[in-house]
UniProtKB/TrEMBL annotation:
Gene3D superfamilies xref list: 3.30.1180.10, 3.40.50.10170
Descriptive protein name: DegV family protein
One annotated GO molecular function: lipid binding
Coiled coil regions, renumbered to chain: none
Provenance organism: Helicovermis profundi
InterPro entries in the cross-refs: DegV, DegV_C, DegV_domain_contain
Pfam families listed in its UniProt record: DegV
């Protein structure tokens, strides 16, 4: 008997780490404008292909993990001796968590108590992914479910998200900024610095120019942390790996940070933030 971790593709966990820590990833769904095909994030459609489509003027929409997918997976779990924890994308940004809870209710009515715990991380992208990875590490080391849940709770409380986007138009399409802000931002080359607070996307600073935005992200890491040399950070990007490596180099030169997870923002997140997004995630240590 063991403890198994399930998550969804909005966690943007690099495939090699999902394999290493035996994390099962359920894909959110992606739809291209004018195409009725249902694409599974990072299964049928991959980030670079989607970003190229968006750069050429195409629009994409996303949908949560389907009810049927949850039902099949959770029912499969019930028929094993293992304990399962499904760690979900923020309920403030997607209906995925709510759908998983609906499936849980139906299965409990059918089977009684089930061996699946569902957690709303109130986190997104690789910030969410770092919570999942740490939970999976603990799950591999122990059969104590309470320790895994304590780890998740601690990570959720202390995980930080800081990111910028290259084009405000994509945030406007997703209802995150006004049309006026998107237009003015484009004209003035304004790059917003954003955060995730209680599961919601929050713009909190504006910087003019891409290079200044990257530098500001690096500066903000030090304002939210102590003991920076031991910090493990997540850095991810959409169609701009060069900028991600530049940010990693800045963090090394400024603070001695050498441990980081580098990954590409998947389709379920990138559809709303667009190509050119750059993010850093880390565990706050000053409280």
């Amino acid at each position: 008997m063991g403890i198994k971790i399930i998550t969804d593709s909005a966690s943007d966990i690099p495939k090699e780490l999902a394999l290493k820590y035996n994390i099962e990833v359920l894909p959110l769904l992606v739809y291209k404008d004018g195409d009725t095909t249902e694409y599974r994030d990072n299964v049928d459609i991959f980030p670079d292909d989607m970003y190229e489509f968006m750069i050429e003027g195409g629009t994409v929409k996303t949908a949560q993990v389907s009810y049927e997918s949850f039902y099949r997976k959770f029912e499969e779990c019930i028929n094993t001796d293992d304990e399962y924890i499904y760690i979900a994308f923020s309920s403030e940004l997607s209906g995925t968590y709510q759908t998983s809870k609906m499936v849980e209710i139906e299965l409990k009515e059918k089977y009684g108590d089930i061996n699946i715990e569902i957690i709303d991380t109130k986190a997104a992208s690789l910030g969410f992914g770092l919570i999942v990875i740490e939970a999976a590490k603990v799950a591999k080391q122990t059969n104590d479910k309470s320790k895994v849940l304590e780890t998740i709770k601690y990570m959720m409380k202390n995980i930080e998200h800081i990111f910028t986007v290259d084009n405000l138009e994509y945030l406007y399409r997703g209802g995150r900024v006004s049309k006026a802000s998107a237009v003015i931002g484009g004209v003035l080359n304004i790059k917003p610095i954003l955060d995730v607070e209680d599961g919601k996307l929050i713009p909190f600073e504006k910087v003019r120019g891409r290079k200044k935005a990257i530098k500001r992200i690096a500066e903000l890491v030090s304002k939210r942390n102590i003991d920076l040399e031991k910090l493990i950070v997540g850095i991810n990007y959409s169609y701009n790996k060069k900028d991600a490596l530049l940010l990693a180099d800045m963090l090394k030169k400024m603070y001695g940070i050498e441990n980081y997870i580098l990954g590409e923002i998947g389709c379920s997140i990138g559809a709303h933030t667009g190509p050119g997004t750059l993010s850093v995630y880390f565990l706050k240590q000053n409280n």
